Amino acid sequence: MMSPQMTGFPPSLRRVLRPLADPARRYRHARLIHALRVGLGLLTSIALTTGIHLPHGEWASITLLVVIGGLQHHGNIRKKAAERALGTLIGAGAGLAIILQQSYFQAPLLSYALIVVACAICAYHAIGKGGYIALLSAITIFIVAGHGENAIADGLWRTADVLIGIAIALLFSFALPLHATYSWRYKLAEALRSCARMHTAIATDASLDKAVLQKAMILQGGLLVQFRSLMPSVAKETGVSMEQLEAIQHSMRVSISLLEVLAATRPREEHELDRAFLRNHLGDETRRINAMLIGMARALTYGVVARLAPRGSSRLERVAGEVPARWAGYVSLTQRLSGEFDALRQHLAAIADRWNI
């Protein structure tokens, strides 16, 4: 599937750039791409600040590391850069004011008191919403003003260096961007494939190893935590509302819980009647659910939205009178699980045009 960004390039160049434009490859090599991007950003910062002999140019490189050093996702970089810029402007303004009063009054104790008060105010706001901005404001006060003894020219140059660092960080965040949406898609696909494996094991093996199942459930729980941390960035990158992402998260959480209960309630196949029921009715439903799960996983991995098409409807409701009494609970849970996975499929299909980047 061709990336929309490549449609304007000549065919020969598209063939060369296709590996770089492939979201799956960018996801697999995210660490390497991030390391190269930060390295090139630092090289640019050093070349620019030393090339024009900018005083205190190291602060541009330090700022670049602060903004993108620990952030590989494009949505996070933009957010942190905006917060960094706002914190820098607040801190730089306060720092310059402290330098000005020091040069006028020549009272170091007053400068120390003003710095302490300003940083205490920042610390008050550092706990809670906007905490990162408040923390960076306090740090920038010291970058610009030191202990109040810096010259006004030094304060202005350091402010300029920090803003240059932010600009370079933003520039390189657009170079081969590592969208949080990629991580969200491929991790969700991994979770769906794991659900398919677990469901097949539960449906076909009454003596499923509980330790193996527990380990798989723990891994699924870890993936759910990762989804949660990615959601704010995914919402920014795609324009999908948090409510829609929460609906997907909820469906996954409920489905994983249902799989665990399903494994605990599955009766053993003790009679020919059990085996006949499984062969004639539950086999088709198991294959339908697994096809739906694998279809969603492939749609997320390869961007083939057609894989999100409905996989028919459950036939279990039509055979309610044929269900052996001791299988009734298991069948009811299977129907609920099927409905939850189908709801997840519909949620993904509804926003496919936005996550398929």
Automatic annotation (TrEMBL):
Domain Integral membrane bound transporter: 47-172
Species this chain originates from: Cupriavidus basilensis
Transmembrane segments: 35-53, 59-77, 84-103, 109-127, 132-148, 160-178
Chief place where the protein resides: membrane
Membrane topology type: Multi-pass membrane protein
Protein name listed in UniProt: FUSC family protein
Family: Belongs to the YccS/YhfK family.
PANTHER family: MULTIDRUG RESISTANCE PROTEIN MDTO, P-HYDROXYBENZOIC ACID EFFLUX PUMP SUBUNIT-RELATED
Localization of this protein: Cell membrane
UniProt cross-references to InterPro entries, sorted A to Z: Memb_transporter_dom
Protein keywords: Cell membrane, Membrane, Transmembrane, Transmembrane helix
